[in-house]
Amino acid sequence: MNQLIQRILPTVQKPARYTGGEYNEIIKNKEDVRVRVAFCFPDTYEIGMSNVGMRILYGVMNEMDGVWCERVFAPWADMEEAMKTNALPLWALESQDPIKDFDMIAFTIGYEMCYTNILNMLKLAGVPLRSADRHDLKNIVYAGGVCAFNPEPLADYIDFFALGEGEEIAVQIVELYDRAKQGNWTKEEYLRQIAKVPGIYVPSMYEHVYHEDGTIREIVVAEGAPKKVTKRIIEDLDNAYYPTKMIVPSTEIVHDRANLEVFRGCIRGCRFCQAGFSCRPVRRKSADILYRQAVETLEDSGHNEITLSSLSTSDYRQLPTLTDALIPYCKDNRINLSVPSLRADNFSRELMQKLQTLRKSGLTFAAEAGTQRLRDVINKNLTEEEILTSCAIAFGGGWNNVKLYFMLGLPTETDEDVLGIAELVHKVILCWKEHASNKKRGLRVHVATAFFVPKPHTPFQWEQQITPEEYLRRCKLLKSHLYSKSVEYNYHEPYLSRLEAVMARGDRRVGAVIEAALERGARLDGWDEFFNYSAWLDAFDACGVDPEHYTVRGYGESEILPWDTIDVGVRKDFLLREKRRAYDEKVTPDCRSACSGCGADQLLREVKCDA
Amino acid sequence: MPRLLFEKVGRSVWISHLDLMRLFQRAFKRAGLKLKHTQGFNPRPSVSIALPLSVGVESECELLDFDLEGEYTIDTIADKLNAALVEGVRVKRVYDAGKKIGALSLLNCKLTLKYHSDMNERTAEMIDALFERETIILPKKTKSGVQELDIIPMIKRHSTCCIDQHTIVMDALICCQNPTLNPAQLVLAIETFLPEMKPDFSQCRRVEIYDINETVFR
Lengths: 611, 218
Known about the structure:
The complex is a heterodimer.
Chain A: H1 3-8, E1 35-41, H2 45-48, H3 52-63, E2 67-73, H4 77-85, E3 104-108, H5 115-125, E4 140-144, E5 160-162, H6 169-182, H7 187-194, E6 200-201, E7 206-210, E8 216-221, E9 229-230, E10 258-261, H8 274-278, H9 287-301, E11 305-309, H10 319-332, E12 336-338, H11 346-356, E13 363-368, H12 372-377, H13 384-396, E14 401-408, H14 415-435, E15 444-451, H15 468-479, E16 487-491, H16 494-504, H17 510-519, H18 533-543, E17 566-567, H19 572-583
Parallel strand pairs in A: 1-2, 1-3, 3-4, 4-5, 9-17, 10-11, 11-12, 13-14, 14-15, 15-16
Antiparallel strand pairs in A: 5-6, 7-8
Helix pairs in contact in A: 5-17, 6-7, 9-10, 13-14, 14-15, 17-18
Chain B: E1 3-8, H1 17-30, E2 47-49, E3 58-66, H2 77-84, E4 89-95, E5 106-114, H3 123-130, E6 137-142, E7 145-150, E8 155-164, E9 167-175, H4 184-193, E10 201-210
Parallel strand pairs in B: 3-10
Antiparallel strand pairs in B: 1-3, 1-4, 2-3, 5-9, 5-10, 6-7, 8-9
Helix pairs in contact in B: 1-2
């Protein structure tokens, strides 16, 4: 290992996150490697190593002959400081080589508030931030992940975006690069060719022209670039690449367990949820394949916990089959099986009781809104009765801890809806008094509210975000109506969510603000201890960009939206219809009960939507 | 209870004590060796490491006690584990039972001191002289605050030599249990009492452990 890194390590927190050397890390002989990819996750090691997508793509690219994909994470502030003091450029974990030595620099972006980290990592690597300042084929910078569904804020910094699921496109991108490198192509030639690959968006081929008022007048598409870029999906998950030999970190990470994705897409259609719409259509994975992958993953990694993940695991058709097979295996091998994001239905209640014999986990409800009216508006079909029935059973079974999550600032929300949260909490307390098997242990109800952020590709993509002041007023109103000592109420600070709203629906002009915020010391924005709101406000000022344009203004229904070039499968007129139904307080049934014709099934060629 | 002797060197020195316990628990599982679990509300696989090692310190002589379910042969455990461990952590020997950990008393450690600029040719000599003093009082952080501690009674032997113009190596036999002297305190003593000989970088390695009679401890 580099001597300098060795000397820095004793001076920083959690040094093991900078060293690599974990079980199943992939090391290749540089002489056999033609294309080197630095796969960057724009947050810390503990967050990034918990990301399943990154693990899949790391495996996919390293399966390729002549290609070596290595991991890079954002350094913590103490390490960043040491790197600057010692003029040590950002390095990749596997080879410890500097990033600027790599052919390709890839980012996976799952969260808007890591945009400064992306630019900071390029800066620490000594790579020019703007695409226009990187002239060579070497160090080409590309990105994927859910945030790529509105790529505009990063359009001037990232050479191209890969939209949707990456198992196949990741290979095509690197293969084409391999050809380009052998053939001494220019960067422009590579970009022209890669733009022809379905799912690739090359922002420099799209010019955004604005009206006086800051809205978009026109998007001018260069010759050779598609008018619309449609996201990629994997149709057959059973036969898709899935690595059962995964890196096992030697230091604790956020999700320190095996993780198995049981299906993709969501049948629910909660109107605020970006994943619920942008990850459609629903595609199944068979229980027998999942069981085999679970056992292989657990035996190879030595983990003592596995989690079945998806957007709504209760909606996985073969969940009974899968859990019936997995529960005995897990019991025999002392493995904790966790099934998050269960709905409050009967099967889930039974399953919860079965899982309880393994280990007791918490009871959490994301009710999102306090009244049935508002839950209908957002199409969150969870009823008060379902919540209270689940609570009654859980309290009777000895649980004494409930978490309830809500959002404030949802479209059409009134004070009555805010107070509805307090009423629901009160009913949960009464329910405990009636059903608790052991009252001596007391009850803890954790209530948390988040500030609603309108997201692209959802029925609420045109909505206004209320002001932080109004959000805080609603928080205080709620707080003054939560009397019980059993209740602990936490509300998210609104300023981060306000910025998140700007980034989520931002246009190309927001990019300069991100760069200016970085210059003013903003990075690691998602971490409370580093969030620097005043740096951001200064940056908006300096760039002459008004954050309210992207928040309280709201977007017009006939306005050209910055992400209009991106097609996630769900049609815009469907989103608009859903928006209207929201205002009419009409629920839309889940996709399994009745197809509402969102259009995402048109992405499928080989199979049908498995809603 | 069976015990194993392992080394922790290279990149793995940055793995913390708690992370290392978890790493071994997983390595046993990967190796197909079923650890017995502790009784109680939250059963945990039983592995215990004799002397927690500070992050950044190398060791050739770590001991780990473990217990397996069912029948097993001791001979194949080392190979199975080594195939399931990470770079730098290597099992050297596995045996049926060892001495009581309470009898572990002395540690032979090697301190490497690095200097950016050329150092005084008498540095090694002066460091040895420092540890010949009657007392060396250093602050020691405890749960109840900072206490003063004389480290001299815990240093049994020491010899320092100069390797090259930038490197000093100190070999010391010190108490490692009842009482415990952290080898880092030796560096702190140099920094405190010979400030002009403060190394720019230092590294520590545990070489061997002994009982009170200086018999190798296993």
